[in-house]
Write a structure and sequence with these properties.
This protein is mainly alpha-helical. Helix content is about 65%, strand content about 10%. The protein has a domain of about 110 residues: Arc Repressor Mutant, subunit A.
Length: about 180
């Protein structure tokens, strides 16, 4: 029945939240399952937690003329400042990253990826990409990927944030491609 005949328009389900909660649950479950698999792969092969891989990736894609404050890096990798500090210390002990203070503002500390960090990321990227492809996007067609991306961007922006990923064709996306190319 269509809405002109007084039939169900789907609004009732949306208003009581059943479909919304089901979608939210599915997003959480799929994220957890894929993340665990990627973490096992990256951790097993390279001794990196997934968050550590993300730290290296975020630092590597930062243009060489720019510096990233630790606080900004925490926002980018979705960790608390304390959580990032603990992780960063472990990565620093392995020689993958380093902290540099700002001589003009002693309260500011910058996060830097080392050459060893770049080499480690370069070795880990193919395994990361293969695992994400196998566990996530290879199960979706192009339209599903675009729809999912648009939906998640709406949710992120509704939370007052900007997506950390880039939309295809925008300037940041092109910069990301350049950063990935620089890793090779």
């Amino acid at each position: 029945m269509d809405s002109e005949e007084g039939g169900d328009t789907g609004l009732a389900d949306k208003e009581d939240g059943k479909e919304g909660f089901a979608a939210w649950s599915d997003v959480c479950q799929s994220y957890t399952l894929v993340s665990r698999a990627v973490e096992r792969k990256i951790g097993g092969q390279f001794g990196l937690p997934l968050a550590g891989f993300d730290v290296l990736a975020q630092l590597a894609k930062t243009p060489k003329e720019e510096r990233v404050r630790m606080q900004e890096l925490a926002r980018r990798v979705l960790l608390s400042k304390s959580g990032l500090s603990q992780l960063f210390t472990r990565l620093e002990k392995r020689g993958l990253v380093e902290r540099r203070g700002d001589p003009e503002n002693l309260r500011v500390t910058y996060a830097i990826i080392t050459q060893e960090g770049r080499r480690t990321l370069e070795r880990a990227l193919p395994a990361f990409h293969a695992e994400v492809a196998e566990r996530f996007w290879s199960h979706l067609d192009e339209e599903e990927i675009r729809t999912l991306s648009r939906a998640m961007r709406k949710v992120i922006r509704a939370s007052g944030e900007e997506p950390l990923s880039n939309e295809p064709g925008d300037a940041r996306s092109d910069a990301m491609k350049d950063a990935r190319h620089d890793l090779r």
